[in-house]
Amino acid sequence: MISDGDGTLFRALTNGWVPWSVLVGPDARVIFSENEFDESGFSIAIKQMYERPTAATATARRAVGSAGCTVVLGGGAGGLVAARELRHRLPADHRIVLVDRAAEHLYQPSLLWQMVGERRPSQFSRPLVRLQRKGIEFHNTEAQMLDLDNRVVVTASGDLNYDSLIVSLGAQLAPETVSGFDEMAHNLYTPEGCAQIHAALQDLTEGVVGILIPAMPYKCPAAPYEAAFLAESFIRRKGIRRNVEIHLFTPEHTPMPVAPAVLGDSIADMLAARGIHYHPLFTFKELRPETREVVASDGGAHRVDLLMVVPPHQAPAVVRSSPLLGVSGFIHVNPRTLQTDYDDVYAIGDVATIKLPNGKALPKAGVFAHAEAKTVAQRIADGYGGKTSDAEFDGNGYCWIELGDGRAGFAGGNFYAEPEPQVKMRRPGRPLHWSKVAFEKWWLHHWL
Ligand SMILES: Cc1cc2nc3c(=O)[nH]c(=O)nc-3n(C[C@H](O)[C@H](O)[C@H](O)COP(=O)(O)OP(=O)(O)OC[C@H]3O[C@@H](n4cnc5c(N)ncnc54)[C@H](O)[C@@H]3O)c2cc1C
Q1: Does residue 281 sit in helix, strand or coil?
Q2: Distance 303 CA to ligand 1 centre (A)
Q3: pLDDT tens-digit profile of 36-45?
C-alpha cells in the first residue's frame, strides 16, 4: 500500500478518470496498455492473447493504373470528405461508392443550437443522394459484414467488392446500456433528443438541470460543456435563472483532459463564473427514475428534473464483429497514414482510435475526421497513380466552444506534439461565435 494523500500518484497514473490498465502476457511482454478503461476492450485483449490474432492478410494488389473501386462506409464527416476528395483526385472510370444507412448527412455540431431552439434539423442536414450528381454512387443501405480476406462488404442490399476500403462509420450511441435512460433522460447527441431538451427547457420554471457523461470516450470533448453554457444562457434569458440549479457530472478530472491543463482550468472557471456546479471524477452507476436521481458508484445521489445525457459510445456492430476491432473497442490505425492491419483498408474519424505520445487517445471530433479523410484520399489516389504517397495526418485540430449569449471560444493546436499536445485557447467573443456559424454554412454548402 502506498499513501497518496495529495493525489500526486493518482494524477501521474491516471487520465483523470481511471488508472492505466496494463495486460502482461505469459512471456512477460506488455501486450495491452491504455489509460482509459473500456471493459470490452480489455476483454478483447485477453481473448486475443489466447487466440493469437492472425497477421494482416496479404491480399493481391491491383495493377497500377487499373480503374478500380473504392468503397467508403459512412457518409458522416469523414466519409463525405473522403468520397468528395477521392472523386476530385481519381479518374472518372474509378468507381467511388459511399454506403450509409441514413439518407441524410447530419452536421452534428448544430445539435447544440437545436437544443436551445436556434436550429431545426432540416437546416443542418442534406440528402446524401446529391453525391450522385458529383460522380459518387450512393447506396442507402446498412453495412452488415466485412469480409476483408475477399475484399467484400456485405450490405443489406447486396455485396460490394472493393479495391480500397475506407471505414468511417463513426461511433454508435448506446443509451440502452444506461438503466433508466428512457424513463428519465434526453439524448444530447440526437435530433430527437435535442428536440425534447428544447421543449423541456421551454416548459421549465424551476428545478435542477443536469448534464451527464456516464462513460468515456465520447465524441467532441467540448460538446457537453457547450450544452451547459447554452442551457445556462437560455435559462437566464428566460428570467428563471435564480429558480434553477445546473449541474454537470463527468468521469473526467477536468474539461477536455487531453488538452493542456490551462485549457481545462479556463473552462472550469467559466462554469464557476456562471454558477454551473461541476462534478469531475463522477463515476456514474445508474439512473433512478422513481426518484429522478443520478447515482454515483460511491452511493451519492443527485436529484435532477431535466437530464441531458451523452450516451456511452461503442464501435458500430459491423465493426465489432470484424477482425478490425482493436483492444480499445475501436479500430487501431497508423496515426499518420490511417492504415489498418489490412492492405488497402483505412479507418478514419470516430470509429478509429489513435494513441497520442502521452498515452491518451486523440479526441473523437469532426475536425480530425475531416483531415484524416483528406490524407487517406490522397494516399489512395497516389497509389492508383503508381506513386509512393507522402500524405500524412499531422495531428492538428481545433474547435469552437459555444459559451452562450452569442459568444464562443476557440482552441486549436497540435495533438501529436511531444510530450504533450500543444493547444492554445483564443479570447472568447462574438466574432468567434459568428465564425462557427460561418463554418457550418460553408460545410453544408461545400460538401453537399
Ligand atoms: C452535439 C455534438 C457536437 C459536436 N461538435 C463538434 C465540433 O464542434 N467540432 C468537431 O470537430 N466535432 C464535433 N462533433 C463530433 C463530430 O460530429 C464527429 O466527431 C464526426 O461526425 C465524426 O465523423 P465520422 O465520419 O467518424 O462519423 P459520423 O459523422 O458519425 O458518421 C458515421 C456515419 O456512418 C453511418 N453508419 C453507421 N453504421 C452504419 C452501418 N452499419 N451501415 C451504414 N451506415 C452506417 C451513420 O449513419 C453515419 O452517417 C460534435 C458531435 C456532437 C454529437
Answers
A1: coil
A2: 31
A3: 555 556 666 6
